[in-house]
Design brief:
Length: 271
């Protein structure tokens, strides 16, 4: 990091600290649920928020489909279906590919050529291929390291909460040099239910030792926003993520940002 970058990072961190002090003194803005407590933590989503993993999904899913003798998929399909956990992703992909005209006839004459008939084998092959290439075709979004550092420097505890299986999430964070930012990492198989259910956020708040109103959810989709609203957490969404292929600005959130380095300014404007 050069001197100019260091000055910019420090300025954003100062804004974050000023924001936290304002929330403590003023009790928070009405749009942020009238919290009587300052933010003490941030809960950050993984896919589409910190790391662009569409490449990993596309490669591993296509290798899975090849093993099952099914047509390959497009990246656009992955973008529409990713975000609700691996089980939903695999079932959605199988249903889409089995409905293709060149496959549909086979599915009608063979019960095994159905989503349920293929699911177990598909999950095994998907897991094998994903773990083999985890992170190889994934890219860190611009501003993520700087944004996480700003939150850390402002005194926030950080946890990563994703619908991705924990066995996928932890190695990916380590491969991209992000693991040291987080005191806790929880996956889609860490709790009984996944986002958009509020349970994962509530459990993560418990692990962090904070109340829901003291924990900011940072994500990229309606899953994150719905879970945060139901749990009572303020929420900010990034515009560059997936959100099931739909524009994220239409999703109810306390702010929408173009990069994690804009997070402090977006929150400060809400006080």
């Amino acid at each position: 990091m050069n001197d100019d970058e260091g000055l910019a990072l420090g300025a954003h961190t100062d804004i974050f600290i000023e924001y936290l002090e304002s929330v403590y003194l003023l009790g928070g803005s009405s749009h942020m649920h009238n919290s009587l407590h300052p933010l003490k933590a941030a809960i950050v989503d993984l896919d589409g928020t910190m790391i662009d993993t569409l490449g990993d999904f596309e490669v591993s899913l296509n290798r899975m489909l090849a093993d099952l003798d099914l047509p390959l998929l497009t990246r656009a399909l992955v973008e529409r279906t990713v975000g609700k956990g691996s089980e939903h992703l695999i079932r959605s992909v199988l249903a889409h590919q089995l409905a293709l005209p060149e496959v549909r006839g086979l599915a009608n004459v063979c019960d095994a050529r159905s989503v349920e008939g293929l699911y177990d084998a598909a999950w095994q092959r998907y897991q094998y291929h994903y773990l083999a290439i985890n992170g190889e075709f994934a890219l860190l979004y611009d501003g993520v390291i700087e944004g996480l550092q700003q939150m850390r420097d402002a005194g926030l505890q950080l946890a990563c909460l994703t619908n991705k299986p924990l066995s996928f999430a932890k190695p990916l964070l380590q491969a991209k040099g992000l693991d040291h930012f987080f005191s806790h990492v929880f996956g889609g198989d860490s709790f009984e239910r996944k986002k958009p259910d509020p349970l994962p956020l509530l459990k993560t708040c418990e692990a962090l030792g904070v109340r829901p109103g003291q924990a900011l959810m940072v994500g990229d989709s309606s899953n994150d926003a719905q879970a945060a609203r139901a749990a009572g957490c303020p929420v900010v969404l990034v515009r560059y993520g997936y959100n099931h292929g739909e524009p994220v600005d239409g999703v109810d959130a306390d702010a929408h940002v173009d990069t994690l380095t804009h997070l402090a300014q977006a929150l400060a404007s809400k006080v």
